[in-house]
Design a protein that fits this description.
The protein has 302 residues and is an alpha+beta fold. Helix content is 36%, strand content 26%. It folds into four domains: 2-61, Winged helix-like DNA-binding domain superfamily/Winged helix DNA-binding domain (Arc Repressor Mutant, subunit A), CATH 1.10.10.10; 69-104, no CATH class; 123-205, SH3 type barrels (Roll); 218-299, 2-Layer Sandwich (Alpha-Beta Plaits), CATH 3.30.70.240.
Length: 302
């Protein structure tokens, strides 16, 4: 990745003083032309890097340059290290870069946080899928996969992957869908039979629109008042705002809040089983009663 390569160049120059462009290219396994472009990038970023010609010449940093680490507060250094630590599971940073920055900032403990975006149930599969998508984006390769919509209908898709997005506790990929001939955002967990095709595309021709969170209109919300047993306290504090939760004398909890109203609400409250008692609205109570009766029919002896 370029960001790691740029840091490696600065780190090498700080360590060795003057290095030729060819030596940097050999060290980083890239072309000399790439190194020269990196030097231009560093100069544009106001890193005082310069080149000298002739015998003994090469790439150097201005004497006394120390990466401006002295102007950073301890809190700012921790924030930089946290940012790199956050990037580790995406593959856009490395433990090596984290360790070097930790040394540069004189921060020895960089193991105080660990971030993993994969699900508990299938972490290996999630990481492999994420790596596949990341590589497809970087290599400009076309994806082929199957994708179910909200009603469960599965369609075959081919798409140009453009950007990975993490939002609302889930990973998505923004892509140009060849079936719909338009930009689409796919939830990674729903992508089935994912394949990377040899076909490439020109990424500069595609600019995905900003990801805009879907807002819930006022008329699509309900006022909820419900009592939950102590057995599901862990879920209550995960899924509702603390200020909407009151603990009762018997150990149960009353939740008084507003929430989006749609078909998913029924399945959501049914997932609590007998650990919830809906007080309001009565329409939700009646609909849940009806659905429970329908469920009983599915399990009655035939």
């Amino acid at each position: 990745m370029q960001i790691e390569r740029l840091f490696e160049i600065v780190y090498t120059l700080l360590d060795r003083g003057t290095v030729t462009a060819q030596e940097l290219a050999d060290k980083l396994n890239v072309s000399k032309r790439t190194i020269l472009r990196d030097i231009e990038t560093l100069a544009l970023a106001k890193v005082p890097v310069y080149t000298t010609q002739g015998k003994g010449g090469g790439v150097s940093l201005l004497d006394g340059y120390v990466l401006d680490k002295a102007v950073l507060s301890d809190e700012e250094k921790e924030q930089i290290l946290l940012g790199i630590k956050t990037l580790l599971p995406t593959g856009n940073a490395s433990d090596k870069a984290l360790s070097k920055l930790g040394s540069l900032f004189a921060v020895k403990n960089t193991d105080w946080i660990e971030i993993d975006f994969s699900r508990w149930s299938n972490p290996k599969h999630d990481r492999e899928k994420f790596d596949t998508l990341k590589d497809a984006i970087m290599q400009r390769k076309t994806l082929a996969f199957s994708y179910p919509n909200s009603t469960g209908e599965i369609s075959k898709r081919k798409a140009y992957p453009l950007k990975l997005v993490f939002q609302g506790q889930a990973w998505y990929i923004q892509a140009f869908c060849l079936l719909k001939k338009d930009y689409r955002t796919f939830k990674i967990n729903r992508m089935i039979d994912l394949q990377v095709l040899p076909e490439t595309f020109e990424a500069t021709l595609y600019t995905p629109p900003p990801v805009v969170p879907q807002s819930i209109p006022t008329q699509d919300k309900i006022h909820l008042r419900a009592v939950f047993t102590a057995a599901v306290a862990y879920r209550i504090y995960d899924e509702f705002n603390p200020e909407d939760i009151s603990k009762n004398a018997d150990g149960s909890f009353t939740v008084d809040t507003s929430m989006p109203f749609d078909e998913w609400v029924y399945g959501y409250f049914l997932s609590y089983g007998d650990n919830v008692h809906i007080l309001e609205p009565t329409t939700l109570r009646k609909t849940l009663q009806k659905k429970i009766k329908e469920m009983l029919k599915n399990y009655s002896e035939r």
